[in-house]
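User: I'm new to structure prediction. If I give you an amino acid sequence, what do you actually give back? Let's try with this one:
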Amino acid sequence: MNNVQLLSKPAPTSTIKPIELYIFIDPLCKNALNMQTMLRKLQLEYDHYFTWRYILSTKLASLNTLGRRTKGCISGAELDITHPALPSIAIKAAELQGKRAAARFLLKLQEHALLKTKEVTSYSALIEIAKESNVDIEEFISDFGSKEAARAFQCDLHITREMEIEEVPSIVFFNECIEDEGLKVSGMYAYEVYVQILQEMMNEQIICNPLPTFEELFLRFHTLTTSDVAAIYSISTQEAERELKKRMLQQKIERLYNDEITLWRRKLN
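Assistant: Good question. You get back a string of structure tokens that encode the predicted 3D arrangement of the chain. For your 269 residues, that looks like this:
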């Protein structure tokens, strides 16, 4: 396998799970969605072995004008500001409320980006997305305009530079021994490659969890694409769509779509 390097871990992390994944993404890049599909399946089958964190890797060239316009943070008065780095800073602001809040925000952000229902690089649109994500909106607005969120994003960019990540998405696998080097895998590979790496890093036979039912899947991941479902269950997109349509007729899920993509979302009663 090409594009694999050994790296030192930036800082020790205490966890009961022996493997930690650093996942480098540009949150609005199409390949980030492919990585998310793979990660979801890996979580379903093997998350008893690993924890993970996203490292946001927006291109550095796009940050210069933002810094000049905002002087390092975002003013709440600049409701019309639009910049490609804003979604990443917004994710870090949500993350200050916890990993789950950040995950909900990222999912809703990607949903609007895919469906093109909001201009997701706009400050005001990101505030609306935060409201839809059920994060504490007052805290989010305060954090979005704070130095803490900007510093958290700069920290991600620093890690990206330190680990010489030149291609996103990429994943670095670390084990629980801080002295051991991490394994950097640049770009996207087949799902089986990541399972093999996990197996090799555990140095023992790993046990695969059974996949959930469709209903259980939508309890865990509220919004999925047809490709997500097909990849998770290793079935064709035609089979996945047939099963999804059945559940739509049963009013268990609903379909959101435009000319380019279809999303399936758990229907809330």
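You can read the tokens as a compact description of the fold. Here is one thing that stands out. The CA atoms of residues 15 and 48 lie 11 Å apart.
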